[in-house]
Amino acid sequence: MLNGLWLGFFVVAALAAFARWLLGGDATVFAALVESLFAMAKLAVEVMILLFGTLTLWLGFLRIAEKAGLVEALARLLGPLFRRLMPEVPAGHPALGLITLNFAANGLGLDNAATPIGLKAMRALQTLNPSETTASNAQILFLVLNASSLTLLPVSIFMYRVQQGADDPTLVFLPILLATSASTLAGLLSVAVMQRLRLWDPVVLAYLVPGALLLGGFMALLAGLSATALASLSSLLGNLTLFGLIVVFVMVGALRKVPVYESFVEGAKEGFDVAKSLLPYLVAMLVAVGALRASGALEFGLDGIRWLVEAFGWDTRFVDALPTALVKPFSGSAARAMLIETMQNHGVDSFPALVAATLQGSTETTFYVLAVYFGAVGIQRARHAVGCALLADLAGVIAAIGVCYWFFG
């Protein structure tokens, strides 16, 4: 899948470049292509340096939380809910703890760190699966919730914004929170319909209703604020949540006699190992996207979408952010490359860049997750997993665009 996508970028770029040369007489396009390749390779290394720091930092703190029992406590807290949503998983099964830890990593925006944990969770669920090749209900729900990308603290997005020179990296905190909530809700409801889950069960309602009321009340509060006030509140809550989590992790760890420094270093080493494996993928995708932009192919495609949007009488500013949304279901590295390219081309705090950042934080690499998670345990029949995951993606994209017009429009 990724092989075809990457090859397709270069083939389309080559065709567009030859068209500009032969039909438009622009012989400089090839110089622009070569310059773009080297520029994007350099950019990949610059992004990677900050990514090393971000992953080592957060996996270090996450290891403290794990040793302090915070993850286990969260698993116990969510246990009754998961037992209703995944009735075939016995109480106390290791899969529940791994699922919780995976959601914690995803919630912190550490998608690269969440993947190895998610694979462990999928293997644990496979031990309960009566079929070797057909996905169980529990595996489908886990995958769809993973694909809905519930991101409570998108530190990776903040990191990309820092690297591109944003004055306030956490400006997109609330837009991502609202968009990812819509994506997750759509994913959960679609799976519940397909699996006939009893969402009206008193225990399930005890979890979901307060959360829905809290989110609804919060949105009602936000509705009365101006765009400037919304941006300021998003910045405050983003920074406060980020630092508050660090304090909680460290203080609870210290109170429970966890060697916080040694635990941090242990987790940071894991983060370093995860980060160093990403550079080849980041270089590969950034140079492919750079070639697509330098050849004029990307702009040509966006002009077609922009013309269609204008025909309906809609605002077209969001169109420049769509490349991130279009490639995100196939490849996280390609979507990151599109996001970085949009920030560079339009400015880190431009409307398209803010929409692209929100899209990146509220949708997931659906086909990649399907291939990796199900492939790891030999699942061949995904059943309704694909349809439910894509519905969650669509809800996330629509919500991200709408929320950005609300906050920044």
Question: What features would you describe in this structure?
Answer:
- The protein is an all-alpha fold.
- The chain has one domain (about 30-409).
- Helix content is about 80%, strand content about 0%.
- The chain is built from 18 helices and no strands.
- The protein has helices at about 1-20, 30-65, 70-85, 95-105, 110-125, 135-145, 155-165, 175-195, 200-225, 225-255, 260-275, 280-295, 295-310, 320-325, 330-345, 350-360, 365-375, 385-409.
- The longest helix is centred in the first third of the chain and has 39 residues, at about 30-65.
- The chain is globular, with a radius of gyration of 22 Å.
Count of structural domains? 1
N-to-C span: 36 Å
Helicity level, as a percent range?
over 70%
Strand content: under 5%
- Tally of extended strands? 0
Radius of gyration: 22 Å
Q: What value does the average pLDDT take?
A: 81
Low-confidence stretches: none
Oligomer: single chain
- State the shape: globular
Task: Please give the largest β-sheet.
Answer: none
Name its key features.
0% strand; mainly alpha; 409 residues; 78% helix
Concise summary:
This protein is mainly α and 409 residues long.
How are the secondary structure elements laid out?
Layout: H1 2-22, H2 29-67, H3 70-85, H4 94-107, H5 111-126, H6 137-147, H7 155-163, H8 173-195, H9 202-223, H10 227-255, H11 260-276, H12 279-295, H13 297-311, H14 322-327, H15 332-346, H16 351-362, H17 366-376, H18 385-408
Helix pairs in contact: 1-12, 2-7, 2-10, 2-11, 2-12, 3-4, 4-5, 5-6, 5-17, 6-8, 6-17, 6-18, 8-16, 8-18, 12-15, 15-16, 16-18
